[in-house]
Amino acid sequence: MTDPALQSIADRFPRRALALRLLLLGTLVLLLAGLFAPIITLEKLLFVHNTFSLASGLVQLLGEGQVLVFLLVGGFSVLLPLAKLVVLFLFVGRHWADRTRLHRYVGWMHRYGRWSMLDVFVVAVLVATVKLGAVANVQVHYGLYLFAAAVLLTMAATAWVMRLADALEREAGA
To answer: What range does the record give for the signal peptide (predicted)?
Structure first.
């Protein structure tokens, strides 16, 4: 039998790890769809209709020279969520001989988990940075819901990974 101190989450909990990896894959699909699907339509003066996704909004920000806002939105809404999904996926299969490192990574995931809803806030910032004019009507589309679902599922997956890591550590310590 394998030493519990050297087991990964996938080694110790194979069915849960498979379900978790499928959840992470589904979350990635939702995140990518949420990035490219239309999130809002802006109507100005009943004649101008502008529908955009988060990705097209980022392109528009860059085109308008809003580099700092582009970097903030792109970092918090695209790069960090993608990085978190990759880290969670790798975390499931990783063998943890060094328990100090495991504690550090679990702590990092917990601290970053508090910032997860910042992704949704960033979308609101994106909407605010679009120059609206005096009168505008905003319609929300399914892309925003896909994106929000990906954020929520990422939070759930993080909690699940943390519980499994804690269980793995308790078994190794026993």
So the answer is: none
Is 85 in contact with 65 (CB distance < 8 Å)? Answer: no
Residue 120: CB atoms within 10 A of its CB come to 15
Work out how many domains the chain is built from and give that number.
1
CATH code of the domain containing 47: 1.20.140
Angle at 118 between CA 108 and CA 151, to 5 degrees: 80
pLDDT in tens, 9-62: 888 899 999 999 999 999 999 999 999 999 888 777 667 778 889 899 899 989
Structure tokens at 57: 């909004």
pLDDT in tens, 8-24: 888 889 999 999 999 99
**What sign does the CA torsion over 156, 172, 21, 122 have?**
positive
Contacts of 122 (CB under 8 A, 6+ apart): 72, 73, 76, 77
For 99-146, the pLDDT digits (tens) are 667 667 767 766 766 665 566 566 665 555 555 545 567 777 899 889
Range of the domain at 37: 4-172
What are the tokens at 142? Answer: 């399914």
Distance (Å, rounded) from C-alpha 161 to C-alpha 174? Answer: 20
